[in-house]
Write a structure and sequence with these properties.
The complex is a heterodimer of chains A (about 290) and B (about 290).
Chain A (H helix, E strand, L loop, with lengths): L4 H31 L3 H4 L14 H21 L6 H31 L6 H10 L5 H14 L7 H4 L7 H13 L2 H9 L4 H9 L4 H17 L2 H6 L8 H10 L6 H21 L1 H14 L1
Chain B lengths: L2 H33 L2 E2 L7 E2 L3 H7 L2 H33 L5 H13 L2 H11 L6 H8 L14 H9 L4 H11 L4 H9 L4 H29 L3 H6 L11 H11 L3 H37 L1
Antiparallel strand pairs in B: 1-2
Helix pairs in contact in B: 1-13, 3-7, 3-8, 3-10, 4-8, 8-10, 9-10, 10-13, 12-13
Classes of the chains: A mainly alpha (about 290), B mainly alpha (about 290).
Chain lengths: ~290, ~290
Amino acid sequence: MSARTRPVRAAVTYTLLVACACAWAAPFVWMLSTSIKPESQALDPGVGLLPNLGGTGFFGSLRALADQIAVNYGGVLESESADFPTYYRNSIVVALASASLMTISSAFVAYGFARVRWPGREVAFAVVLGTMMVPFTVVMAPQYLLFKELGLIGTLLPLWLPSAFAGAFSVFLLRQFFMGLPPELDEAARIDGCGHFGIFWRVVLPNSTPALAAVFLLQFVAAWNDFVGPLVFLNHQEQYTLALGLQMYQSSHGGTPWSLLMAACVLTILPVLLVFALFQRAFTESVATRGLKG
Amino acid sequence: MSARGELRTGLVWTAPFWIGFALFTAVPVALSIRYGFTQYDLIEDPLPVGGANYAEIAHDPVFWTALRNTGIFAACSVTLNTVVALALALLLEQKLRGRELVRALVFAPTLVPISAVAVGWLWLLKRDDGLVNTALGALGVAGPDWLGDADWALATLVLMSGWIVGAQVMVFTAALRDVPKSLLEAAAVDGATAWSRLWRITLPTISPAVAFNVIVSAIWALQVFALPLIMTRGGPQNSTLVLSMYVYQNAFQYGRMGYASALAWIQFALTCALTIAAVRFARRRVHTRVGAAG
């Protein structure tokens, strides 16, 4: 590339980068901005990112802004048409239970596929992967009937109980990781008198914390974000999770002010973004693995 | 250990999966096949009706509308997602300041609950005073009624899906690392333009990742549900009614479990057929192109 075209090229790529940054950040920024405005100003796009709240001087304005934030977010948390503190509790219970059970059960199953030799193992693993193909629409009606038969419709159990029985993607990820551990480790443990369980517990698990953390996080986020499961299996507002409660807050009361709706969105998104920011490496690595080995 | 002993050990370790597989996949799938040949309103026992449900589907105009919408959505969204994701991955491969931030921003929509994303976009796309139409108005363009106009609603959902491409970008980014730098440099020295380097070196090398992304996005798009449900509820005039939504409506709103099961099986069969076709096509193309690239 000649020295003459290089600055032009740099200008073009940086412009593109900034344009992409804007396109992907704008919806979130506007959401946040709307959530701290009084409703009358939220509806006026001319107001800009920060509301005009009066208040004298820098600290006066800051005080007025803090008051407005308290009004909006307090309004969401104390809303009469939706019970967000309960949705929070439900989401946390479901996401933690689902992620813990998924990690433990998938680790067992993945060990069985990675470290135990048995006839038919490859075919069995193909069956595991095959379950990823079955669409939820095919199984949702019979699953609903099953949970109804068991008396579990109207509880949170249908949302996390299936996680106790491992999941194809988690098993895939962990098996991949377990197979990468050096087999010498197993042999050393075997000489020390360990059986499969000893190897699993003392050798494989302690050496697999990054993969276990990735599975836990991915399942936590998947359960937190799940919309269709709660929609099908829950029938009382007290059991709603945030993802479903937010949609109900938006739809069943056409009069919900946009500023409060955006505050509710921020409250729904924030925990996931925090988890992501804290554990970004585990996420990106696991997604990259899926891409390479898929 | 004997073969039987080995088999037993393997099955014990993988038992959690098999129990869950029986309860939440195999039995529901079997029941769903059976319900497809019955009339079942959840109150009385399923009444066998032979192939009546399938015969009715063939003459159900709403089904054909849903099929058409799903097909259009899938075709457009898969194309758009793949192009956008590839462009973003290529842009983020350049050594630019701030690209890690943009990478995180692009991944954010993939990470947060779809209901929060959908509600946020409802606000951005409001007809008269939404941010998008205000911005277009400032440029002198009269923005359409994105979600309220039957001619625009499906296209709007496609555009929105092009914003949720974080996972695909990750897959492309991982694949781009495998493109031989020496080859690109040699081609540049020989005078190949950036465009021809992209077409002749980069794309053939990452063609497995392209195939993977196309197949995964197609499966997602053929089963899309939460996005249209929250944004448009299938309207206006059924212009965004997709197959999953029609299955859900029949099962849980019209109390027609049998009909819903038959619909779900048609959706599953279509997904399978298209996926198999795509995999076959990819296998041929991907291998020859990689081979040609050396």
